Predict the 3D structure of the following.
Amino acid sequence: MNEVLNENGFPFRGQGGIYLDYNATTPCDPRVVDAMLPYFYEHPGNPASRTHAIGWRADEAVKKARKQIAHLTKVEAHEIIFTSGATESNNFALKGIYESYQHKGNHIITLTTEHKAVLDPLKKLETLGAEVTYLDVEPDGMVDLQKLENAITSQTLLIATMWANNETGVIQNMKAIGELCNQKNILLFSDATQAVGKIQTHPKELGVQLMSFSAHKMYGPKGVGALYVAHQDPKIKLAEQMNGGGHERGNRSGTLNVPGIVGFGKAAEIAQQEMEVDSARLQQLRDKFENTLLQQLELTSINGHSKNRLAHTCNMSFKFIDGEALMNTFNQRLAVASGSACTSASIEPSHVLLGMGLSKHLAQASLRFSLGKFTTEAEIDEAAAIIIANVNHQRALSPIWEMYKDGVDVEGLI
Ligand code: PMP
């Protein structure tokens, strides 16, 4: 690979400026790419081919990856179902459970701050008769456990709460939610796409029966993910959503993406060894970045819980600034996000920030900065300097800012 290397020997800065959008996707770790390469040409087998060694070889590679992923999440290898990514895993979990168990109850509880890959399948289920309660979270992004408990009815089949939020990094108290579900005999599903490989995610220990995640958020390749389904008695039955050759023990048909799965496995192995150290380093960088901006820019605030937050994620509001306009002033020197990447084509304010109770203005004045293991201190320092200069410049051009500085009460004007 022909790239510029940073001080850690890792790829550094692509064509698009300083990359601070790791929550949208991570670059593949070069060690992951190396692990995958032989499975494109040298070992091209289909793991479902039982009649020859080339198929067996592919099957062994998939088995190894399944173990690596199971090891990271402390589950059994046979509890992992490979999919094309977290969107598919979420659809499979939600639709699969509803289809199998709607006779027992048609009520599902979720959070308004979930990813669209949870909210949209739930909207679809509503058209099929599901009753869905969407709970707003507290201003710090955490769900109020009492409100969650109060929302439970005799019809509640499933609670779907994400492990860590993609926009703010807020980490839900999965242990307490697991205990509540266990007491009430309700299934618990968690979209852990942003959490797996970044913090410990051990669903079995916490009573989470279904958990989705994706390789490309943890330095693996795009287009491969997994759904964990607890093996328990009575068995959790998921109506399969992809019918075909009965792959993945009849759960999800389709020839397995062997190179992708091998890369996913390698990424899980690396995460297990390195995530603690990476996370500690990123927390220092992220805190330095946040403190610099907070100190040098007035009316700037952080969105999300002060402690229960992914170490590499920073969501900030810059009052009197339009986030989209600010991003444009970066002139491609910084790759950052406003709202979630998947909805950034729309100019609607982030549903996550609104769900936390931010005003429309503040939600629109917010940007997400997500760091990753290839981020360097020099990049963080440069990014902070660019942001400070541009926020100051934008504000200097704003009549509202001028009025605010003159002591006029402008709250009604924004
Ligand atoms: N859930 C969350 C929380 C995410 O951040 C994402 C990716 N933006 C997804 C689901 C969808 O994952 P994938 O890209 O693997 O389909």
About this structure: The radius of gyration is 22 Å. The chain has two domains: 3-28+275-413, 30-269. The domain at 30-269 is CATH 3.40.640.10 (Aspartate Aminotransferase; domain 2).
